[in-house]
Amino acid sequence: MKDTFKHKGMRQQLVKTVAEKGITNSDVLKAIGKIPRHLFMDSGFIDHAYVDKAFPIGADQTISQPYTVAFQTELLQIEEGDKILEIGTGSGYQTAVLLELGSKVYSIERQKELFKKTSKFLPKIGYRPKKLVFGDGYKGLPEEAPFDGIIVTAGAPFVPKPLLSQLAIGGRLVIPVGDEVQTMTLFIRKDDKEFEKHEFGEFRFVPLLENKN
Ligand code: SAH
């Protein structure tokens, strides 16, 4: 598992592209410049790793587009030590970005093979989430709540209630909502019952699947 000068060069180009598309948070850009995205994909696809596109990672799933990862992460406004829940671990790339920002990451994946593969892979390259969970993200992770931030990395047909209720006061939920196309949506918890809602542009994600078990 190599990270060469060539990779580093391509990565700086990717950072530039993502910044040109409107990402300004310097910590987020730094994370994208640091994480060897090509290692999160199967070998043979290295030339695709630093293009600003989503890419298949097997099991009908994708590694999200770097711009999308950056956009969602920016909306979370992470501070060092924040407790963050991610729904849809997938390749672990977004997980790595959250860790680079100094947050404590809990992440849920419902696809067994991906869960196993990513659980082994992340520590190998030095990324240690607090907890990786094999399970259904619709339920969140009540035993670890409340969270300062929750990020959903699959398209949700509706906003799961448990995710809202597992936010700390002041916490932020970033979730793409919709069927074919999703609207990036941010909820900020104001108090026990009140949530502020903001909508951003349209994105396309693989669907957040209901648990079939
Ligand atoms: N964050 C990932 C994106 C992966 S794509 C990355 O950076 O690579 C979305 C992921 O959500 C897929 O791995 C898919 O299996 C997972 N997923 C879909 N429905 C889910 C659910 N109900 N609970 C948890 N994960 C789910």
UniProtKB/TrEMBL annotation:
<dbReference type="GO" id="GO:0030091">
    <property type="term" value="P:protein repair"/>
</dbReference>
<keyword id="KW-0963">Cytoplasm</keyword>
<feature type="active site">
    <location>
        <position position="64"/>
    </location>
</feature>
<protein>
    <recommendedName>
        <fullName>Protein-L-isoaspartate O-methyltransferase</fullName>
        <ecNumber>2.1.1.77</ecNumber>
    </recommendedName>
</protein>
<dbReference type="GO" id="GO:0005737">
    <property type="term" value="C:cytoplasm"/>
</dbReference>
<keyword id="KW-0489">Methyltransferase</keyword>
<dbReference type="InterPro" id="IPR000682">
    <property type="entry name" value="PCMT"/>
</dbReference>
<comment type="function">
    <text>Catalyzes the methyl esterification of L-isoaspartyl residues in peptides and proteins that result from spontaneous decomposition of normal L-aspartyl and L-asparaginyl residues. It plays a role in the repair and/or degradation of damaged proteins.</text>
</comment>
<keyword id="KW-0949">S-adenosyl-L-methionine</keyword>
<dbReference type="Pfam" id="PF01135">
    <property type="entry name" value="PCMT"/>
</dbReference>
<dbReference type="GO" id="GO:0004719">
    <property type="term" value="F:protein-L-isoaspartate (D-aspartate) O-methyltransferase activity"/>
</dbReference>
<comment type="similarity">
    <text>Belongs to the methyltransferase superfamily. L-isoaspartyl/D-aspartyl protein methyltransferase family.</text>
</comment>
<dbReference type="GO" id="GO:0032259">
    <property type="term" value="P:methylation"/>
</dbReference>
<dbReference type="InterPro" id="IPR029063">
    <property type="entry name" value="SAM-dependent_MTases_sf"/>
</dbReference>
<keyword id="KW-0808">Transferase</keyword>
